[in-house]
Amino acid sequence: MTLTVFDLDKTLINGDSYDLWHEFLLEKGILKDDFIRENQKMIELYDEGKLNMEEYLKFSITSLKSLSLDEISNLIPEFLETKIKPIIYNEAKIWIKTLTPNLIISATPSYIVNPVSKYLGVKEAIGVNLVVKNSHYTDEFIPPLSFQEGKVEALKIYLKNKNLNPQKIVFYTDSINDLAMCEFAHSTNCINPDDKLRKIALEKGWNIINLK
């Protein structure tokens, strides 16, 4: 059995689902510009592979302080149609249909990853699972944190729980933050890789796919 594992953001879609969610909330008047400005600073750290994900979760969860789980669920369908549908890579649609079994693993919180994955046609997904208290998400998470080396740990737990032992794991990603997963997989495909990942991909002979 060959298992195909996809990163989500900038790999299957031409954008970042979490950033787009914040943009969506800004347009709804739920967030303000100062949140977006601070978020952009953290995105830059992420792109450099220097983001402290636990600190980012504590910051980003403030975007939801006024929203209950039900209110978030009610917003998701419009978010998917307006923000995600227009940026799905055509190639990704083919991969998802033909490269099965497959799953998505992402450092984005599961309340975004799960509905986006289902919308894309991917049944299995791993994201950051935030703890819920009083019908609201908190900045606490259920380990492991599916970020950097934590993605490998999360995948191993998933495989154990599902009693799966794939002979080959094929991984698709765009980001240097996924280097540990790239090295763990038997085969790696780098989708519009950032400069750091592109350099390593060229050194290691990983497949580079440039999408538009």
What does this structure look like?
The protein has about 210 residues and is an alpha/beta fold. The chain has one domain: 3-Layer(aba) Sandwich (Rossmann fold), CATH 3.40.50. The protein is built from nine helices and eight strands. The strands form two sheets. It has a six-stranded parallel β-sheet with strand order 3-2-1-6-7-8. A two-stranded antiparallel ribbon has the order 4-5. A hairpin with a 2-residue loop joins β4 and β5. The two termini are about 30 Å apart. The mean pLDDT is about 95.
Model regions low in confidence, pLDDT < 50 over at least 5 residues: none
**Major sheet characteristics:** 6 strands, parallel
Oligomer class:
single chain
The helicity comes to 40-55%
Shape: globular
In brief, what are we looking at here?
This protein has 212 residues and is of the alpha/beta class. The protein is built from nine helices and eight strands. It holds the Pfam family HAD.
